Each structure stands twice: as C-alpha cells, then as structure tokens.
C-alpha cells in the first residue's frame, strides 16, 4: 500500500512519532514517510516536549508508556498548542480506561501494539462518523474485570490505596493485579 496519500493528509504533512522503542519508531517513521508524511521522532516525553516547542505537528502518534512519563502528557500538550492536530495513541498495555482518557484529551484513535503502518495511517486520516463493526473476538470475562479495575485505578488518579478501597479489595491483591499484563 505504498501510494501517495497527500490528498488525505492535507497541506501540512508534519508528523511527530513518540515512542521509546527506537527500532519500532524508526521503522514506523520510514513507513509513514513513504505514505507522504514528514515525520520527526522523539524517544521520550522530554524530547517530545522539545519537538512541540519547535513546531506543533498536524499529526502525532504517541506511545502511552514512556521511560520518563506518560504519553497522555504529550497528547494534552499538543492539543493545547494545536487544536486541529490528529493524535493517535499506541500502547502495548491497552486498557479501556486509558483509551477513554486519551480520547477525552483529544486523541482521535487508540491502537494496541503492534500496530502496522496501514492501521496507523487509517487512524490518522480517516474521519469516523459511525460506530465500528462489533469485534470478531469480544473480551473475555477476565479481561472485562481487568478493564474495570484499570478504569477505577485511572479514575482514582492511579492511587492504589484509594482504588483498593473503592473496589473493596485488599491493597496487596490490587498491586499484584496491576503488576501483571491484562488477560487476552
């Protein structure tokens, strides 16, 4: 699918890619460049802040978890600098709560890793006005439970003690659940 997408991209093809996985972000950068974007790479929250200070891009792909902070901080900062920016959040730790937070902060989409360049391209340029089709593989009951815990955790500002109290759960039990990857 290496075709010119400049009509979809518009007059400003600037793209900021923020991910601390340098191999992944370099590969994504080359793929997005072939699709018509002019990408810049940042491998940390600090580097992304510097890039945004130079020029807020029209598009951004931001990893949720970075070594030095949260990608949501970058979403918030870019949205405050450029209202029309189209932002996609990527993460290997997908949770409904963080997806909701990302969309509320201004992201247009939320993709789980590993997302390929075509998925990222579609998320950046497609104008969605209808609900997507139902999933082929809906979440398991264990996953729904995990997602609920993650949502309450985010709503409690990531405070483990407060989350445990609200969920009527022992704090150490909650810490063990939070330390594990979510079930599939």
From TrEMBL:
<dbReference type="InterPro" id="IPR039420">
    <property type="entry name" value="WalR-like"/>
</dbReference>
<feature type="domain" description="Response regulatory">
    <location>
        <begin position="14"/>
        <end position="128"/>
    </location>
</feature>
<keyword id="KW-0597">Phosphoprotein</keyword>
<dbReference type="GO" id="GO:0000156">
    <property type="term" value="F:phosphorelay response regulator activity"/>
</dbReference>
<dbReference type="GO" id="GO:0000976">
    <property type="term" value="F:transcription cis-regulatory region binding"/>
</dbReference>
<dbReference type="GO" id="GO:0006355">
    <property type="term" value="P:regulation of DNA-templated transcription"/>
</dbReference>
<keyword id="KW-0805">Transcription regulation</keyword>
<dbReference type="Pfam" id="PF00072">
    <property type="entry name" value="Response_reg"/>
</dbReference>
<keyword id="KW-0804">Transcription</keyword>
<dbReference type="GO" id="GO:0005829">
    <property type="term" value="C:cytosol"/>
</dbReference>
<keyword id="KW-0238">DNA-binding</keyword>
<dbReference type="InterPro" id="IPR047772">
    <property type="entry name" value="ActR_PrrA_rreg"/>
</dbReference>
<protein>
    <submittedName>
        <fullName>Two-component system response regulator</fullName>
    </submittedName>
</protein>
<dbReference type="InterPro" id="IPR001789">
    <property type="entry name" value="Sig_transdc_resp-reg_receiver"/>
</dbReference>
<dbReference type="GO" id="GO:0032993">
    <property type="term" value="C:protein-DNA complex"/>
</dbReference>
<feature type="modified residue" description="4-aspartylphosphate">
    <location>
        <position position="63"/>
    </location>
</feature>
<dbReference type="InterPro" id="IPR011006">
    <property type="entry name" value="CheY-like_superfamily"/>
</dbReference>
């Amino acid at each position: 699918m290496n075709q010119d997408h400049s009509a979809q991209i518009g007059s400003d093809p600037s793209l900021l890619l923020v991910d601390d996985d340098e191999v992944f972000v370099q590969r994504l950068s080359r793929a997005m460049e072939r699709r018509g974007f002019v990408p810049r790479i940042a491998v940390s929250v600090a580097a992304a802040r510097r890039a945004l200070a130079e020029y807020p891009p029209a598009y951004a792909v931001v990893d949720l978890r970075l070594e030095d902070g949260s990608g949501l901080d970058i979403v918030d900062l870019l949205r405050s600098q450029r209202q029309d920016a189209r932002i996609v959040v990527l993460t290997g730790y997908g949770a409904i709560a963080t997806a909701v937070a990302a969309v509320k902060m201004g992201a247009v989409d939320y993709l789980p890793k590993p997302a390929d360049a075509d998925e990222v391209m579609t998320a950046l340029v497609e104008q969605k006005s209808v609900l997507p089709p139902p999933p082929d593989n809906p979440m398991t009951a264990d996953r729904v439970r995990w997602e609920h815990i993650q949502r309450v955790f985010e709503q409690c500002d990531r405070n483990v003690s407060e989350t445990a109290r609200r969920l009527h759960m022992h704090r150490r039990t909650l810490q063990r659940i939070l330390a594990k990857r979510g079930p599939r």
